[in-house]
Design goal:
mainly alpha; 7 helices; 3 strands
Length: 187
């Protein structure tokens, strides 16, 4: 289970699931991952290649040079599941992952802010709020009946992300109000 350590564990786990659905080259897997996780995740193709190499080094993926569809003379590295992939995905599904820290950058700034930083904090908090609201619009869950298992899972993921973003917006607004109130009383 050493592959389940670190901040990239959710992406590695999701990549295992995609490999079990069908093999793919790094760019294909990055696109599929981005489509499944949605706009709120920043999926970088170079990171996906790095994660695939890690999965390969632990025996959870295998890579083979295969001809490109558009040009039979050229090849690309296509990743496939191994005999261990399915069991690893099952283990990942059964394992509670540690809660990710939220607002880490803003919390770090708040922890060392000086009074003269109040205006900059207010600007950063407002910008964060706007970003969360934009992302929330992109993942707003639907009340429609899901027609497939994949659609149901994606809808549940959207719902979870939407709820987290709403919580972030509420926290940011409360924090801005508290800072503004402090500034009013302490000028």
């Amino acid at each position: 289970t050493r592959w389940m350590r670190g901040a990239s564990t959710p992406l590695r786990g999701a990549l295992l699931g995609l490999l079990l659905e069908r093999p793919g080259h790094g760019g294909d897997l990055a696109n599929r991952l981005a489509a499944r996780l949605g706009e709120t995740w920043r999926v970088d193709t170079n990171d996906v290649y790095r994660l695939l190499e890690q999965l390969e080094s632990t025996g959870l993926a295998s890579a083979r040079d295969e001809p490109k569809r558009s040009n039979e003379r050229r090849t690309h590295l296509v990743y496939h599941p191994t005999e261990e992939t399915s069991e690893a995905l099952t283990t990942w599904m059964e394992t509670l992952l540690p809660r990710e820290p939220v607002r880490l950058g803003l919390q770090a700034k708040l922890s060392v802010a000086r009074p003269q930083d109040a205006r900059r904090l207010l600007i950063a908090l407002r910008a964060y709020e706007r970003e969360c609201l934009v992302l929330a619009q992109l993942v707003c869950p639907s009340d429609l009946h899901a027609r497939s298992w994949t659609a149901l899972c994606m809808e549940c993921t959207r719902d979870a992300v939407y709820a987290q973003l709403q919580t972030e917006v509420d926290w940011s607004a409360r924090t801005r109000q508290r800072i503004n109130k402090f500034l009013e009383h302490n000028g």
